[in-house]
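[job 0412] stage=complex_fold ligand=magnesium ion status=START
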Amino acid sequence: MAFSGESTSDVFGLRRATRIGGRPGLPPPTSPRFGDQPYRHMVEQAVDGLLVVANDDGRIVYCNPAAATLLQSSRETLTGSPFGLPVTQAEDAAAVEIVTGGEPVFVDMHTRSISWQGRGATLVSLHDVSARRSAEARIEMQAKALEAAANGIYIIEKGGVISWANSAFTAMTGYGPDELCGQPVAILAPPSPDDAAHADLWTRLIAGETWKGRIVNLRKDGTSYTAEQTVTPITDITGRLSHFVAIQEDISARLKTEGELIRLTEYDGVTGLPNRNVFMHRAKAAIERASRAKAMVAVMVLDLDNFKAINNTLGHETGDKFLAAVASRISGLMRSSDTLARFGGDDFAILFENVTDMAAASRTVRSFLNSFRDPFVVDGHTIEATASIGIAAFPKDDIDPPSLLRHAELAMYQAKAEGRDAFRYFDREMDADIRRRVQLEADLRHAVEGNQLWLAYQPQLDLASGQIVGAEALIRWNHPARGLISPGEFIPIAEASSLILPIGDWIIEEICRQHMIWQVQGLPELRLGFNVSGVQFRQKDLFNKVATTLARSGLSAKMLDIEITETVAMERTGCVQQNVDRLTAAGISMSMDDFGTGYSSLSNLQAFPVCRLKVDGSFVKGIGAKRDDEKIVEAVVRLGQSMGLTVVAEGVETLAQLEFLRGLGCDEIQGYYISKPLPPEDFRRFVADFRMPAS
Ligand code: C2E
Ligand code: MG
Ligand code: MG
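[job 0412] stage=complex_fold status=DONE, emitting structure tokens
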């Protein structure tokens, strides 16, 4: 038996684990005597182990069954064995480990001096505390684990005072090891906490539930961090709430990374504005709120009128900066509750919540358009820009974001079609319009092979000779259901859908074919003008197509005249320029159509190989009525001729107009006064029978 590592040859040893204060042996009691019945019986039945050790030789002279069990030996072996400790020094001790062959046993040991059969002896009582001791060890281990945990852990007493915090938590919050203990938990809350989260936290905890969620906590230095926190209420053995254990993970860094990812997936890199996804999400939420509150939501689409040109001339980098400048200018005019988003290119969308009346929306939209009055200065360039805006409203126009956006887009196109730099509200008519257009486009696809297209020819009169010298071929469409449809209606659709390309090919073939027929029929040689749109001029193979068709028909190139618009003439880029050069080189002449309606000037024309100028009919219409129009016609005739161009006046409807033009020395006229555009056979007869009307 051994204490504190004192090694002997004993059959067992006792090791003192915790000393709780020693007490020397007490003087022996006088009565009752231990060996007497019924005391002996009581001692034999005692739960605690009892040993009597003779003071003189330190050997065990008595041991009860409980002691034998504790010391994992038999009474016979124990009796007479040395106790292992000078019994005079035996002291009361707590949690003494008894080293045996098997599981360690822990006992609280108490000693009393007694007299044993006339000898001085010590009564040693051993109280088994192994179970308590292992529970304590477990708690100690758990405490160490909690202390060493990577997550911040702290305990709050039910009164709201922090009673313990591990080092991860003190490190997270910046407090010293003991600074948090005794502090109210409120010191962790930021000045304006998320009330909803806090209210929910306490409601759940009081109800005995575990709370899990995100909270913002304050550090000692006043900065804050976001934590993922689990708080569990702990009850005492009576089931009453005693305290709370909170476990936290600081997720600020993770949120930052997530935030950056979110920014990448939800925000547009050029302007920093929300993208389409975010816009749709917010629009949906706004509509839900508005339908509960019986309020209105406006969805707007804003498109810059000349962004392509800006991008092409100043480069994409400046284009991007310009877009960012536009975004910041518009944002500056918006309420914080509204959303400005960029969908890509120069497509912006705006979400207006709580719209009380459309007049208020109009005022805001007008302020957007007005804000473009001041030019933008980007990279040292002064950029003049305008925008067109379309508006659709919930619940008037539709009830879901995609439809509202579609309607707003339609209204925006309408604003553009009506001259740009404007805004339009969506109306059902527009929708019907679009449907009509879509149907027309579908029908137009079958028009060529269905032989529904034909060319009308409008004669052109040479004023000096009184002869018909040419004609303009004008396309006609006999729609199987809708009858004759004017080119004004279907040519823009054909241009927008590229259907103009097969139609254009057909026109050239048809003109060549018709011309050859008239030649066979003995009609004098006439120059045939036809309209070629910008879309066709932008095709690499336009020249080849015209040249091949011409060669196949055997027609001379000088019999053809291509009418181009001012916009095409101004677009002196790549394919357009090449086509113009090659066509003129091949001997095909060019006419500038609708002159005066576009933005080109006579000086622009000098650089362009046109030989004829067609004064737009709208100016001719003013002859005899509007002095300004007369002046314009006069100027165009004079300047055109001074540049060596043949001037043709379009839309001549009256003799007075004819006389005025003749007076100016205008070269040719075309218009209802001479003839409307005619079907080929009518045209042939018209030319054959033509006599100059007497003036
Ligand atoms: P445009 O090339 O300026 O053609 C002249 C238009 O004025 C024609 O209308 C013609 O019918 C009309 N017109 C002629 N004389 C008078 C007149 O005295 N008074 C009035 N009020 N109008 C007159 P149309 O045939 O409806 O063609 C309209 C436009 O459609 C054309 O304008 C042209 O830009 C386009 N277009 C017509 N045919 C073709 C074509 O084959 N290809 C292409 N790309 N465009 C075409
Ligand atoms: Mg024309
Ligand atoms: Mg014209």
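The pocket of C2E (ligand 1) is lined by residues 458, 474-475, 486-488, 491, 507, 530-531, 533, 563, 593-594, 617, 650-653, 671-672, 677 (CB under 6 Å).
[job 0412] exit 0
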